Amino acid sequence: MAFQVSSELIKKVTLLINTKDDNALTTVLAEVHFADLAEILEELQLTEATYLVRLLDSQKTSEALMELEEDFREDILEKLSAKEIAEELEEMDTDDAADVIAELPEERVENVISNIEDEQHAEYIVELLSYADNTAGALMAKELVKVKENWTVAGCVREMRQQAKNVTRVHSIYVVDMDGKLKGRLSLKDLLTAEAKSYIKDIYIPKVDYVTVDTEDEEVARIMQKYDLEAIPVVDMTNILVGRVTIDDIVDFIKDEAEKDYQLAAGISQDVEADDSILEHTRARLPWLILGLFGGLGSVFILEGFEEVMLNEKYRNLFFYTPLIAAMAGNVGVQSSAIIVQGLANHSVKGSLTKRLLKEIGLGLINGLALAILIIIFGTIMQYELAFSLTIATALMAVIIVAALIGTFVPIILDRRGIDPAIATGPFITTSNDIFGIFLFFYLAKLILGF
Amino acid sequence: MAFQVSSELIKKVTLLINTKDDNALTTVLAEVHFADLAEILEELQLTEATYLVRLLDSQKTSEALMELEEDFREDILEKLSAKEIAEELEEMDTDDAADVIAELPEERVENVISNIEDEQHAEYIVELLSYADNTAGALMAKELVKVKENWTVAGCVREMRQQAKNVTRVHSIYVVDMDGKLKGRLSLKDLLTAEAKSYIKDIYIPKVDYVTVDTEDEEVARIMQKYDLEAIPVVDMTNILVGRVTIDDIVDFIKDEAEKDYQLAAGISQDVEADDSILEHTRARLPWLILGLFGGLGSVFILEGFEEVMLNEKYRNLFFYTPLIAAMAGNVGVQSSAIIVQGLANHSVKGSLTKRLLKEIGLGLINGLALAILIIIFGTIMQYELAFSLTIATALMAVIIVAALIGTFVPIILDRRGIDPAIATGPFITTSNDIFGIFLFFYLAKLILGF
Q: How far apart are CA B368 and CA B366, in angstroms?
């Protein structure tokens, strides 16, 4: 089974668009999965992609649009009329539709919504737009299957056939009381294996995990992952069932979070993509570079304090080692902090601080010793004085241990103070370790060599 | 709804274990979710946790065991007899059971498997163990619901009640022919809304995405994400349906991949966790540190080439700037490479290389200019000669642009050669940029200042 869009297909589609052969286009693309259609759209020019979106059935294009990069989707929507956008939204689940509307320029929103023919759908979208960002309310969809506790299984199946039409995946059937308050759940499996005449209230599972509309999205993701849930119902303040969050939204959320952490570790403070504008990239990157610059200026001051060493022919070689020391301090710090940041995120950092401290010192000793031996071998080859090589080796070991300790404890301290420890991996640790490392190196060298 | 295990509960459980009050323990923990039980186990001492696993119903403890950190689970299993482990495995889905067996010491495997009472279950586990790591075969579970195309809906529902007992979540019902070859699928929704007398072959959806047992797990994850699948059937070489992979396995897979990339960016080359042994950490970290050391020694050679500058009272300050230059080159390189690595992973790096080149140069110019201005302001405050400040500022700009270009193109080149570009973020880029940056800095300074 080939899950790839061939370049021949793209060439063919481009040709058919340019010759406006609509019949051939619909035939060729009839069997194409929406995710593949999205890939095709991304390979086309904007006008060609817009042409396809206009031509093909909204049922397919609406799903393909959701798979596109946000920027490209916005560009296509800009070319469509309010009515055409409304047709696409009509085919989307309410949560996707609300996301798309949130991307539209403000002045178009009202016009687009008023063009949605299904009033219920439009109302749902407006409701979803009213929830605060980063909450379960903003993440959930209105599509779900709910039954009342006083129905029979047979009546329930009848009613469900109606509801299920609008729901892509049923997952769970939610059971509510007369007021719409969440009482419990039923799986399709339970329904399938129950007697037709039995009442829902006698067979449903009253234990159901749920979140409220204002639960933070991070917490929703945590709960769904921890309890292996594929969907979770969302209730309002009065316990009335208002929507549900499904696992596919959480998959996207997990990926986004991982990308954010990765970028933070690399010194990029906003969510930017390769194809974003230069200005957006500057805003995301420059603050960290300025931090690095100030750190570098800190090293300038430290090194100035040892300026007279330059006049000492025997020891001025020490200055050649500053980049090496700074790099090792930075690398070790980033390694230690990355491990701790991940451990904190997974709640797997346990045990006492003293034990962790001893472990990092042990690890620093082993790594430091290995590197110190390499330095001494290098010094022998270069015919350095042994005292000089030993000084560099000793200082390097000390720097590695201190860098590991800083890398370990800064994230732990940040975490305890309620600050995202991910901020500590990357430029923050590198910069502070550079300064500490260089100072320690020259200070120890002065002590040992006695200049 | 509180999704937290309180420390009171843990204290209470510990007390009840130590007083061996089994009745009270089972009562207290009767309503606890398996994911919460896992959290409780992780807070206990090994002997206490083992006591609980032995005491409680395997149906709950088997699921809790799957949620534990691998090391802790191994420790508990080591204390259990082959028969006790077999009881836990009996309650697990086949894919989880196979994973657990793969963690056991080789000499115990046979004994444990022969203690599994359900022969079919044992056979399935042995089959799963036979597939190569990192393939769909190793990822899939044998639990699924399948129906034959010549059955009626009514017959199908009867048969399914039987099959569904062993399947936690039905997702899709797979339709096979008389030989067990995959023909298509049905959703529970379809079954629920079909006439009891109609034949499966008249109502099933013949279009079904599938993978084969030897499809790579990364590819399975890609397909399931791309096509928004919650489960995908797995067939053998002769198209016979042999298992299915579900979305929860993919969620774990995505998280693991993200963690691996994050660690690689931090210079950690194996999957290690905070609580792994010092030896494992050394093996994961030391190679990158040695790379950094060699890079640092490279800088030593470069700086030695400019040793005579130290005798020049006016310009020897340049040496104080080496850590700053190295740090900026490293930071910029990591930023650029992180963006490209993510873009490559998401297939969102499009367009021509020339355009990207111009963009990185533009970005480097803006960031470089901002930092150059800061350097000049700093120089004015420090009452440096303007020529000296301008030299540092110019060299810094050049270094930033070159570092951005290296950070951008190294991952692209690696990717085109089929090497994981993630390796380029982190120590690899930092080290090479350190060397390039320092060389460029001194070389330009020499050109401009003419020493």
A: 5
